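Dear all,

This email documents one entry for the complex benchmark we are building for the journal club exercise. For each entry we list the sequence lines for every component of the assembly. Then comes the predicted three-dimensional structure of the complex as a token string, followed by one or two observations. Please use this as the template for your own entries, and keep the labels exactly as they appear.
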Amino acid sequence: MKRDQKRAQLVEIAMKLFDRYGYHATGVDRIIAESGIAKTTLYRHFPSKEDLIVTCLAKRDERFRDEMRECVEATGHDPRERLLATFDYLQTWFDSPAFHGCPFVCAAGEYCEQNHPVFQQAILHKRLVIAYFEELAHAAGFTDAKNVAREINLLHEGAVAAAQVLGHEGVAAHAKQTARRLLAA
Amino acid sequence: MKRDQKRAQLVEIAMKLFDRYGYHATGVDRIIAESGIAKTTLYRHFPSKEDLIVTCLAKRDERFRDEMRECVEATGHDPRERLLATFDYLQTWFDSPAFHGCPFVCAAGEYCEQNHPVFQQAILHKRLVIAYFEELAHAAGFTDAKNVAREINLLHEGAVAAAQVLGHEGVAAHAKQTARRLLAA
DNA sequence: CTATATCGATACAGATCAGTATCGTATAAA
DNA sequence: TTTATACGATACTGATCTGTATCGATATAG
């Protein structure tokens, strides 16, 4: 296994564990135990656990937005339906067994100092997602695309929190329907 | 200081620290240091840290819903405005310096096993809040009060998450305006 | 005054935490 | 074959974690 593969595997295992058990509750020892990679190797790739967390979040952000884009692209060309298709991606996310709430909101909850790199990574992710919503809203002909994007984001975040605590049964579909009515109003 | 006062103070200090630093990151040693109460005394009142957390969340839930009720009662008698007034309470919460996201969502993120007492406490809180929304929606004459309550909840949760990560500037007001448009549609 | 209960202070146990130091090994390019 | 690089295994450090054990002080009720 190449060096880059080991690094990638560390990130992959760490992401899974951080999602499942949280950031403070997941020790470095557990990450190396489940990945079968020596602790020394981990610290050759990442100077600290904090650095590993930030790397994991950056990877999550990249993957999240890529997959959401794919879901939107697969929807078709109706610009309003494309905006609403973001909720379909939410549903597939909720239905996956690995779903335990938004990793970025959880991370922001555990590292809630404004200047903390982990918190900053959460901010960055949310901004990028909203920017994508705005892009879709603009394409759908909304003159107040910024405002529409913020509303869609409200429903997204609400759906994630509701699915996390109360269960994912039809939450995304309900949020999508709510968004549809909102866009029509 | 009486026994009950000490217990109450422990809960108060612990709530503040859990909110600010998270649940795993807040050690028992810190709680006793900031409260000036001996560790033995803490463990005479609470059999474990987990038990203290659950007690804190129960107290938070009680206070949260009481204060939200007060805010609604102070609004007047227009039933629809009373439903929308729940967003005004959100804004006062966001503006308080102690706001660091929803304590229940954060707790659910750190203890995300379904059967864990902490997670169960989060579920209970969310159900009670939604039940209150439904009560207000019913009073406002909505025949689909259950559905309206879920929609209001989506916007509430979304506003909390957005305020936590991206800042509280006008988030609640925006959510309120969105809710108003939604109810009119 | 005496009995009971609660308290604070301290030390401790045993586990786990993040991170480092050491050393022998495997691989691959030169 | 030599050299450089990354690796695993292990042991370790010093701090911190939850929780307990011990003991003397204090306060209150009968």
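Observations: The radius of gyration of chain A is 18 Å. Chain A has a mean pLDDT of 96.
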